[in-house]
Amino acid sequence: MLQFEFENPTRIVFGQGVENTVGRETARHASKVLLHFGGASALKSGLLDRVRSSLTEAGVEYRELGGVQPNPRLSLVLEGMKICRDEKIPFILAVGGGSVIDSAKAIAAAVPYAGDPWDFWEYSASPETALPVGVVLTIPAAGSETSGSTVITNAEKELKRGLTSQLLRPRFALMNPELTMTLPAYQTACGAADIMAHVMERYFTNTRDVEFTDRLCEATLKTVISNVPRALENPQDYAARAEIMWAGTIAHNDLLGTGREQDWASHGIEHELSALYDIAHGAGLAIVFPSWMRRVYRHDPARFARFAHEVFAVEYDPFNIERTALEGIGRLESFFRRIGLPVRLSEAGIPADRIPEMARKSTLKGGGMIGGFVKLDSAAVQSILEAAL
Ligand code: NZQ
Ligand code: ZN
């Protein structure tokens, strides 16, 4: 196990009705907030009205900024930044999923920064301070409710990039699994793939003697695999929704990554897909992850065989570890397919013509290489994407 520091300061309030405490929770931090949300879902479900009432009851003044799109855009971040600066708003309240939360965090980092905020996603500057953010979560997926990351799309540059800073971990996250019952089946499935990917990016590691976190990873994956079909079968199944929601947070608050090297190549590759084709992040991961696995499993077949056996109950064949490993990858792919996700680029309507461009862009950040488990250059990324056609 490697040395590590772990601090997750986000206060989590979980269960039925917790969104109605948002006024009280927010009032601890500010008396004026930017209320940030996405498209129609929070309005249609009545959630936004309840949040407004709760804020008003607690004496918190709010200014609204809706319209966050999935794969949130820099342009709206800049708009939010201007509003906060002009109206001296010291706190951002995100009501929605990963996209809304990421947009809120990006505004939070941009407001006190004197330069061009995109610097943060070009890695030429890091935030030295940021406004505090609070969250009412509506979809278990990105884990942004407790993570320090914000992933933003610069549509002009056709780039989607992540920024991570401890300063960006939300002050609180209110998580009511009932709010996720209105999710379309496809979004529930995309969320599941993202949660699983967050675990797998950490699970496939070169670090030895990490049994505790290995087992936590396996438990998280198995919980998602058993509960997502239940939630798809019956969207009102509170127990299943609650399991998925809590698993989604634990998958990405970095508890599961403590003391171990992590990979993150699949996320890097997926972000290029989302940047060019605006595909849902989880759907992109369902395509990229199995293809990445087939490319790298020979690096440590025993780890992949363990994954197959522990997570998908594949019979462990000590005389043919490779067969066990490949069976596990096949079962992961079948699971994604069964819950309604694409597992090939063609199934998502993505053509081959821009694969070399995506491969090149995805490796720019890491000095030409990405991935902690296996280092990949742009030719390797290209072959992963081509194998996913
Ligand atoms: O905009 P509305 O109308 O709210 O609709 C949303 C959106 O269309 C809908 N939705 C959300 N909650 C709903 C609902 N519909 C009905 N009922 C509800 N309760 O779902 C759609 C997707 O929402 P979005 O916020 O985009 O989903 P998700 O949480 O998967 O976030 C994806 C974004 O997070 C980034 C991804 O790259 C992507 O941009 N990520 C952020 C991370 C982080 N900050 O730590 C890590 C992740 O790896 C990921 O990269
Ligand atoms: Zn993700």
TrEMBL record:
<dbReference type="GO" id="GO:0005829">
    <property type="term" value="C:cytosol"/>
</dbReference>
<dbReference type="GO" id="GO:1990002">
    <property type="term" value="F:methylglyoxal reductase (NADPH) (acetol producing) activity"/>
</dbReference>
<dbReference type="InterPro" id="IPR018211">
    <property type="entry name" value="ADH_Fe_CS"/>
</dbReference>
<dbReference type="GO" id="GO:1990362">
    <property type="term" value="F:butanol dehydrogenase (NAD+) activity"/>
</dbReference>
<keyword id="KW-0560">Oxidoreductase</keyword>
<dbReference type="InterPro" id="IPR044731">
    <property type="entry name" value="BDH-like"/>
</dbReference>
<dbReference type="Pfam" id="PF00465">
    <property type="entry name" value="Fe-ADH"/>
</dbReference>
<feature type="domain" description="Alcohol dehydrogenase iron-type/glycerol dehydrogenase GldA">
    <location>
        <begin position="9"/>
        <end position="177"/>
    </location>
</feature>
<feature type="domain" description="Fe-containing alcohol dehydrogenase-like C-terminal">
    <location>
        <begin position="188"/>
        <end position="389"/>
    </location>
</feature>
<protein>
    <submittedName>
        <fullName>Iron-containing alcohol dehydrogenase</fullName>
    </submittedName>
</protein>
<dbReference type="GO" id="GO:0008106">
    <property type="term" value="F:alcohol dehydrogenase (NADP+) activity"/>
</dbReference>
<dbReference type="GO" id="GO:0046872">
    <property type="term" value="F:metal ion binding"/>
</dbReference>
<dbReference type="Pfam" id="PF25137">
    <property type="entry name" value="ADH_Fe_C"/>
</dbReference>
<dbReference type="InterPro" id="IPR056798">
    <property type="entry name" value="ADH_Fe_C"/>
</dbReference>
<dbReference type="InterPro" id="IPR001670">
    <property type="entry name" value="ADH_Fe/GldA"/>
</dbReference>
<comment type="similarity">
    <text>Belongs to the iron-containing alcohol dehydrogenase family.</text>
</comment>
